[in-house]
Amino acid sequence: MTATDAFDRPALERLYAEVERPLFNVVYRWLWQRDDAAEVVQEAFLRLWAMRTRVDPTTARPLVYRIALNLAASRRRRAKVRRWVGLEAATPRDERHPERLMGGATEDARVRAAIEALPEKLRRVITLCELGEMAYRDVAETLGIPEGTVASRRHAALQQLRRALRDLAPQTGGTDGRR
Amino acid sequence: MDDDDLIRRVFPTEDPPPGGLTRLRAHLDAAERPRRAWVPAVAGLLAATAAVALLLLPRAPEVTAPTWTAADHPALANLGYAAPATPGATPGQRTVLRPVDTGDDDVLLYWVSGAP
Fold it and tell me: Which chain A residues are closer than 8 Å to B29 by Cβ?
């Protein structure tokens, strides 16, 4: 069976159903806009479909993550340039007021700032590891780096986040059930 | 704050906007639909344009066979474009040479005919 035969419409739709949520959450940490993140997820799948004749179904999942991450990083850079040249009015409201994100609490704004402060290579690893529902091996394949590098970058990202958020008030109550 | 607590607070998960798969299907269908609609439409338009152009363009003038005779241009007889001329003179007869205008100074042709 060739890649062309195997990666058909049903296979694409199955993959979408499987990864939509984790991929959306990864991309959201790059764009901080729900609509933009959902758009990027759609576009990533459309691009994957456009190149379906060259897609090996066994690598479609890391490939769509890689496409989505590149799209998100590209959009993010464009948004930065837009702000730099002074088109602040064109910036979505939530981007200008991070405290309105995800419930409007100040802690959310600080969390966002801490994630924003991560170097891109650390952010890619930590978002894929913690939100992408991927094993180190899959993250390594997605980013084209060794598994050991994934582990060390994840550790470095957590260290940096911990330093940035060390004075957050201890949280009471249960977990959200993700872990 | 241990790693799990940190991760839980930093990376809460959210549900994506509903209807994502439906939108993806619509995008995929839309990407395929124009291709199906375009091909016959463009082909039909081109065929119609070509037909109209053929009808409207001026026709080339009809080519008719020349009415030359070998007497006008004797060389044509050798090429098969004209019937061979009847002999201008018979053996033993006195002949007259008449130069034939060939349009080329390097080509000299004479028409040989019997003297009256």
Answer: none
Q: Give the span between the Cα atoms of B74 and B44, in whole angstroms.
A: 54
Region of B112 on the Ramachandran plot (φ > 0 left; ψ -120 to 50 alpha; else beta): beta
Whether residues B11 and A131 touch (CB distance < 8 A) is answered with: yes
Tokens standing for B104? 């080329």
- Smallest CA–CA distance, residue B51 to chain A, in Å, is 37
Which bin fits A133, alpha (ψ -120 to 50), beta or left (φ > 0)? left
Cβ distance of A114 and B10 shorter than 8 Å: yes
Of B10, B23, B25, the CB nearest to A161: B10
* Blockwise average pLDDT, block size 10, chain B, 116 residues: 84 93 92 71 90 83 60 70 64 78 84 75
Considering only CA atoms, which of A176, A172, A93 is closest in space to residue A131?
Answer: A176
Task: Give dist(CA B113, CA B116) in Å, integer.
Answer: 9
State pLDDT tens for residues A35-54: 999 999 999 999 999 999 88
